[in-house]
C-alpha cells in the first residue's frame, strides 16, 4: 500500500507575518538574506500583505501537476510522499513548466550562464529523513502545519466548523484536482489574490479530454503542451476582457456633469 501523501496546511488567520518561514527557507538553501516581494530563484517562499492579512506564497505541489505533464523530459515529477520535485540534470531549459503552472510559481535563473528552474520542493530531502519542512518547523505560531494530507484536510474542516470567522472552504482541497498545500482563511480568498476561477479537474486531464480527437500522429507531449497553451491563453483573454470592461465602465462614474457637457 502506498503511503499517504503529505501536505502543508497554512492558516492565514494565525499568520503574524514574522517572515520566519521565509528566513528558514533561505538559510536552508544558502540564499542571500534579503527581502523579496515576489517569488524568485532565491526566494522559494514569500509572505506578502494584503487587506491587513499575511499570505504565504510558494509551490502548491498539485496532486496531478501540470508542470510535470508539460515537461518533455521528465525534469519535474510528483513523488509518492507529496512534493513535486525538480531534477536539474534532466532539464533542457524549455521553460514549458513556467507557462503551464496554474499558480505561476516556477522561476528561471535568467542571469546565469547555466540556468535552472527554481521552486519549492517541500524540503523533500528533509522529508526523506523523517523531518518536517523547514518553513513549518520555523513558524512560531503554528500558522503552518504538516502531516498526512487527509489529516490536514480533517484539521482544516475542524477549524472552520468550530470558528465561523473562517471562510467555509479550503483552498487547495479541490482546485486543479487538489494540491498538497492547503489554505484556510478568515477573509475571502478572491480578496487576497488567490486564483479562485481554477477548474476542479486536473488540467492535464482537461488537456487530454480536449485533444481526444487529435490524430495519433501528433505526439502526446506536443498535444498536451498545445492544450496547456490554449488554457493559459484563454485565462489571459478572460482577464483582459474583464479589465477592458472595467475601463469602459469608468466614464459612467463621472456623474451627470459629464453627460450634460456631452449633450451641450
Quick take:
The protein is an alpha+beta fold and 264 residues long. 34% of the residues lie in helices and 13% in strands.
* Major β-sheet strand ordering: 8-1-9
Nearest-angstrom radius of gyration? 21 Å
- Please state the overall shape, judged from the principal axes of the Cα atoms: globular
Quickly give the CATH architecture: 2-Layer Sandwich
Distance between the termini: 79 Å
Percentage of residues assigned to helices: 25-40%
What's the total number of strands? 9
Poorly predicted runs of 5 or more residues: 216-220, 252-264
Tally of individual domains: 1
Structural class determined from secondary elements: alpha+beta
Give the ordered list of helices and strands: EHEEHEEHEEHHEHEHHH
Give the CATH level 1 class. Answer: Alpha Beta
Beta percentage is 5-15%
CATH topology: Alpha-Beta Plaits
Mean pLDDT: 86
Largest sheet data:
3 strands, mixed
The number of helical elements comes to 9
Task: Give me the secondary-structure topology.
Elements: E1 6-11, H1 20-29, E2 46-50, E3 53-57, H2 66-70, E4 76-78, E5 84-86, H3 96-100, E6 107-108, E7 117-118, H4 124-128, H5 134-138, E8 144-148, H6 149-162, E9 181-184, H7 203-210, H8 220-249, H9 256-263
Parallel strand pairs: 1-9
Antiparallel strand pairs: 1-8, 2-3, 4-5, 6-7
